[in-house]
From TrEMBL, chain A:
Annotated signal peptide: 1-20
PANTHER family xrefs: IRON UPTAKE SYSTEM COMPONENT EFEO (PTHR39192:SF1)
One term under GO cellular component: cell envelope
Protein name as annotated: Iron uptake system component EfeO
Entry's family note: Belongs to the EfeM/EfeO family.
Highest taxon listed in the record's lineage: Bacteria
Location in the cell: Cell envelope
Domain Imelysin-like positions: 31-261
Organism encoding this protein: Rhodobacter aestuarii
UniProtKB/TrEMBL annotation, chain B:
Keyword Transcription appears in the UniProt entry: no
Cofactor note as given: Binds 1 heme b (iron(II)-protoporphyrin IX) group non-covalently per subunit.
Organism annotation: Rhodobacter aestuarii
Cofactor: heme b
Subcellular location: Cell envelope
Keyword Metal-binding assigned: yes
Gene Ontology BP annotations: iron import into cell
Span of domain Dyp-type peroxidase C-terminal: 224-403
Cited InterPro entries: Dimeric_a/b-barrel, Dyp_perox_C, Dyp_perox_N, Dyp_peroxidase, EfeB/EfeN, TAT_signal
Identification of the protein by name: Deferrochelatase
Binding sites annotated in the UniProt record for protoporphyrin IX: G233, S234, A235, R289
Transmembrane segments: none
PROSITE patterns listed in its UniProt record: DYP_PEROXIDASE, TAT
C-alpha cells in the first residue's frame, strides 16, 4: 500500500502550521454541482420509494424485498449531508437500537421498520401507515432540497462524517441486519463520499494526499467488486473476514484522511 | 531460591542501588524490589519514570509491572514482506516517541490535532512500555511468513474450564501496553490507532490495574492482590537473576526468535460474588496460601516469600494436593523446567446480564517455552477446585520478538524481516 500516514505528510509541511487560505467563494462551483447531485438522487429516491412502498402496501412481499436495497441506494448516496435534514433522517433511516424498546417501539419507523416487517415478520398489513409516512417523508425531503442552503463546511465535512458512521456502525453489519443488504449501502455511501472528494479535489494542493485518498477509494471499489451480483451485491454474510478486515482498515484510513479535508480547504 | 532473593535484595539495597531489574531502565525510582509483580507503592511512581524501549529484549516483560496494563489485539493488514516491514517500522516510530515523551506536534488549528491531547501538550513517559506480540494467524496467512513461525507458536486452544468468546480471542498482533497511569496506556493505544489505521484493525482489548499500596518499610515487598483478595505473583522468578531469565524467559538461538519470549494472555473472569460467599478457610485451601499475608499454608505465620515444603506434606494435609499453587508449581525436580514469569492485572468491566460484576484477571505470562511454561501449568491446573470461581473467556498466544537498539535505522521485529529476506523466495 502506498498510503502515506497523512499526519506524517502534514508534519513535513507544517512546521510552521499554515494551510492554503482558500476563500470559500471559490467553492461555489463544487457546491452547486454537489447540490445538483443530491437533487438528482432525491428525484430518483422519490420515484423508487413510491414503487417500494406501493409493493409493501399491496402485500407483495417478494417484490418489496427486491426493491428495498436498490431504493435505499439513492438515500445512502446523499447521506453525507443528512445532518441538513436531521429531523427527516431519523424517521426515514433510524435503526431499532435508536429506540428504547427496539423493534417494538412505536417511534421506530422508516426503511428499517419496513425491512423488519418484510424479512422478520413476513407480513406488511400492519405497516401500511409506516409505508405512507416513509413516502411522505421522502417527498418532504425532495421539496426541501431546492431551497436548502448547503454550507460548504457541512458538505465537505459530510464525506468524513459518513466514513465515521461506516466505521462505527456499518462495517459490523448493523445497518441492514434483517435483509443483509449492507453491501448495497456501503456502495452508496462510498459513492456519495467519493463524489464530494472528486468535486473538491481540484482545490486541494497536496498530491500525495489525493493519491492516497483516491487509491483507498479504488481499493474499496475493488473489494466490494468481488461481491457483485446482478445489479447489486450478495448478502453481507458472504463478506469474508479477510475482506471485512480490509474494508475496516480502508474506512479507518479514509476517515483519518478525510478528517483533514475541511481544514485543507480553509473551512471550519 | 527465595532466600537468595532476599539476600540479594538486602545486599543491593545496602549498596543503594535500588534494583536494576531492567538493565535499560533509566531513573527507575520504583525499583525497590526484584519482583516484577510487586505491588506498586504510593509515592514511588513518577510521570518522569522512563523505561527504555531499547535492549536485547523488549521491555514490559522482565521490567517492573507498573499499576496499569492493557493487552490490545489487532488484525494486521499485510500482503507482502515490505508491508510487514512498514508496519513494524511505523510501530517502532510510535514506540520511540511515546516511551520517550516530549512535545506533541502542533498542526494548523483548522486540522484535527496530531494527538488526542489527553495527556496535555507535553508527553511524559510515565514508565510506559509497549511490548509487541505476534500471533500464529499472522504467520499462517502468508506462505512467505509461515516458515518463520516460532516453533511453539500456535493458536490458543480451549482448556476444559474455558468458555472462550471469539470476540476476545487471538489476533495477528498483540500489544501489551503498561504504564503508571490509565491515561497513559489509553493515550498510547489511541496514538497507535490514529497513526496506523491502514494496517492495524483493533479486534479486542482488555485493560486492568493492580492496587497501589501504602509505602512499605525498607525491605518489605508485597505482591499485589488480585480480585480474589489474594497476593498474586509471590513465586515469580527473580528478574535480576540473569541466568534464570535466560532459562525461563528468553528463547535461545539460533534463529531470528532468539531473545524473544512467548506471551500467554488469558482473560479470566472471576465470579467474585460467589467467591466472597465462600468461607475463608475454603478460599485458603483452594489457593494454598493464607489470604492476609500470602504465606504458604505449611508456614502460615511466615510470609509469601517462604517456599512451601511439599515433600514434608505428601498427603496434602497442610497444602491440599489440588490447591492452586501446588498444582501450578509442584516444586518437584521437574518443576524448574516449568517456570514462567507472570505479570497480571485485575480488570473490572461492568455488569453481566445476570446483574453480576464482570471482574477478573488479565493474566499475562512470558516464557521461553510455551509448552513447558503456561500450557504445562494450565494442564496441571485443569479440574482444580478454583475452577468453580473462575472462567477463562478470552486471550491468545503470541510471540514477543527480541528487542531493538537505539540505532536510528533499527526497528522492532527487524530480525524477522531479515530472516524473511534471507529465505530464497519460491512462493
Amino acid at each position: 500500500m502506498k498510503t502515506l500516514p497523512l499526519f506524517a505528510a502534514l508534519l513535513a509541511t507544517t512546521t510552521a502550521p499554515a494551510l492554503a487560505e482558500q476563500a470559500p467563494l471559490d467553492l461555489v462551483g463544487p457546491i452547486a454541482e454537489y447540490k445538483l447531485y443530491v437533487s438528482e438522487n432525491t428525484d430518483v429516491l422519490v420515484e423508487e420509494t413510491r414503487a417500494f412502498t406501493e409493493a409493501v402496501k399491496a402485500g407483495e412481499i417478494e417484490k418489496a424485498k427486491a426493491l428495498f436495497a436498490p431504493t435505499r441506494l439513492s438515500y445512502e448516496r446523499i447521506e453525507p449531508v443528512a445532518e441538513l435534514f436531521a429531523d427527516l433522517d431519523a424517521p426515514i433511516d433510524a435503526r431499532a437500537d435508536d429506540y428504547e424498546q427496539a423493534e417494538a417501539d412505536p417511534e421506530f419507523t422508516g426503511f428499517h421498520r419496513l425491512e423488519y416487517a418484510l424479512w422478520v415478520e413476513g407480513k406488511t398489513d400492519h405497516v401500511t401507515e409506516i409505508a405512507d409516512k416513509l413516502q411522505a417523508d421522502i417527498e418532504e425531503l425532495a421539496r426541501r432540497i431546492d431551497s436548502l442552503t448547503f454550507p460548504p463546511a457541512v458538505v465537505v465535512g459530510g464525506a468524513s462524517v459518513l466514513m465515521e458512521e461506516v466505521a462505527a456502525t456499518k462495517i459490523s453489519g448493523e445497518e441492514d441486519r434483517y435483509s443483509r443488504t449492507d453491501l448495497w449501502d456501503f456502495h452508496g455511501n462510498f459513492d456519495g463520499a467519493w463524489k464530494i472528494v472528486e468535486l473538491f479535489a481540484p482545490h486541494v494542493e497536496d498530491e500525495a494526499f489525493l493519491n492516497s485518498v483516491e487509491g483507498n477509494f479504488d481499493k474499496v471499489r475493488d473489494t466490494l467488486g468481488k461481491y457483485r451480483e446482478g445489479e447489486g451485491f450478495v448478502s453481507y454474510e458472504h463478506l469474508s473476514d479477510e475482506d471485512r478486515r480490509r474494508l475496516s482498515a480502508l474506512v479507518n484510513t479514509l476517515a483519518e484522511d478525510l478528517s483533514t479535508l475541511r481544514g485543507r480547504l480553509g473551512l471550519i | 531460591m527465595s532466600e537468595m532473593n532476599e539476600s540479594r535484595r538486602a545486599l543491593l539495597k545496602g549498596l543503594g542501588l535500588g534494583l536494576a531489574t531492567c538493565p535499560f531502565a533509566l531513573g527507575a525510582a520504583r525499583a525497590e524490589t526484584a519482583q516484577v509483580t510487586a505491588a506498586p507503592q504510593q509515592g514511588a511512581a513518577s510521570a518522569e519514570d522512563r523505561v527504555s524501549p531499547y535492549g536485547l529484549h523488549q521491555p514490559g516483560i522482565a521490567t517492573n509491572r507498573p499499576a496499569w496494563g492493557m493487552v490490545a489485539s489487532f488484525d494486521a493488514i499485510v500482503d507482502t514482506p515490505a508491508d510487514l516491514e512498514r508496519l513494524l517500522r511505523r510501530l517502532t516510530e510510535r514506540i520511540r516517541f511515546l516511551t520517550s515523551g516530549g512535545a506533541v506536534p502542533e498542526l494548523d488549528p483548522k486540522l484535527p490535532p496530531a494527538d488526542s491531547g489527553i495527556l496535555g501538550p507535553v508527553l511524559r513517559p510515565d514508565a510506559l512500555t509497549i511490548t509487541l506480540g505476534l500471533g500464529a494467524s499472522l504467520f499462517e496467512r502468508h506462505p512467505w511468513l509461515a516458515p518463520h513461525r516460532p516453533a511453539q507458536l500456535a493458536r490458543m486452544t480451549s482448556f476444559p474450564n474455558d468458555a472462550l468468546d471469539a470476540d476476545q480471542c487471538h489476533g495477528d498482533i498483540a500489544l501489551q501496553i503498561c504504564a503508571n497511569t490509565q491515561d497513559t496506556i489509553i493515550h498510547a493505544l489511541r496514538d497507535i490507532l490514529k497513526n496506523l489505521p491502514d494496517q492495524l484493525v483493533l479486534r479486542w482489548k482488555q485493560e486492568g490495574n493492580v492496587p497501589v499500596i501504602a509505602p512499605q518499610p525498607p525491605g518489605v515487598v508485597e505482591s499485589a492482590r488480585n480480585f480474589l483478595g489474594f497476593r498474586d505473583g509471590s513465586a515469580n522468578p527473580d528478574p535480576a537473576d540473569a541466568a534464570l531469565m535466560e532459562r525461563v524467559l528468553w528463547v535461545q538461538g539460533p534463529g531470528w526468535a532468539a531473545g524473544g519470549s512467548y506471551m500467554a494472555v488469558r482473560v479470566i473472569r472471576n465470579f467474585v460474588e460467589r467467591w466472597d460467599r465462600a468461607p475463608l478457610l475454603e478460599q485458603e485451601r483452594i489457593m494454598g496460601r493464607t489470604k492476609v499475608t500470602g504465606a504458604p499454608l505449611d508456614h502460615p505465620t511466615g510470609s509469601e516469600a517462604d517456599t512451601p515444603e511439599y515433600a514434608a506434606d505428601p498427603a496434602g494435609d497442610l497444602t491440599p494436593l489440588d490447591s492452586h499453587i501446588r498444582l501450578a508449581n509442584p516444586r518437584d525436580a521437574g518443576g524448574e523446567r516449568h517456570l514462567m514469569l507472570r505479570r497480571p492485572f485485575n480488570y473490572s468491566n461492568g455488569v453481566t446480564r445476570s446483574g453480576q460484576l464482570d471482574q477478573g484477571l488479565l493474566f499475562i505470562a512470558y516464557q521461553a517455552s510455551l509448552n513447558e511454561g503456561f500450557i504445562a501449568a494450565q494442564t496441571r491446573l485443569n479440574g482444580e477446585p478454583l475452577e468453580e470461581y473462575i472462567k477463562p473467556v478470552g486471550g491468545g498466544y503470541f510471540f514477543a520478538p527480541p528487542g531493538f537498539s537505539n540505532a536510528p535505522d533499527d526497528y522492532l521485529g527487524r530480525q524477522l524481516i531479515d530472516a524473511i529476506g534471507r529465505t530464497p523466495s519460491k512462493t
